Amino acid sequence: MSNDLILIVDDNPSNIQVVATIMAEYGYELGIAMNASEAYSFLGENTPELILLDIDMPEIDGYEVCSTLKKDYRYKDIPIIFLTVKDEKEDIVKAFDLGAVDYVTKPFNRKELVSRVRTHL
Predict the structure, then answer these.
(1) Where are the domains of the chain?
(2) What is the pLDDT of residues 29-43, one digit of tens each?
(3) CA distance linking residue 120 with residue 49, whole number of Å
(4) Does domain 5-120 have CATH number 3.40.50.2300?
(5) Does 2 score more than 90 pLDDT?
(6) Measuring CA to CA, which residue among 55, 47, 10 is closest to residue 29?
(7) SUPFAM superfamilies under this entry (predicted)?
(8) What's the pTM value of the predicted model, to 2 decimals?
(9) Cα angle value 39/93/65 (rounded, 5°)
(10) CA distance 35 to 26
(11) Beta-carbon count within 10 A of 96 CB
């Protein structure tokens, strides 16, 4: 069991519910943000060990969030795993170019997701 804090950023409440349930089962502490503004707000008061980030979100997408965080000395070392339906090679390459440590496509295998999270913590 772990007490590591994971921030889940996704604009879809049912996606958040599924991921949060899985992560909670493994003892992770969770932060939830439904958009970039909520994510930045959360980060202003907490330092998660890892961020699970969706790409398709209103206003500010996950790519921009990742890019912004990687340019900020306070957050640049937090591993970001994209968790998204986007499965084109260009999307995956872009994510890594922006500094993500991993990329998981939805629908995902829960054991695979947990293993990837564990690997980057």
Answers:
(1) 5-120
(2) 999 999 999 999 999
(3) 9
(4) yes
(5) no
(6) 47
(7) CheY-like
(8) 0.96
(9) 15
(10) 24
(11) 12
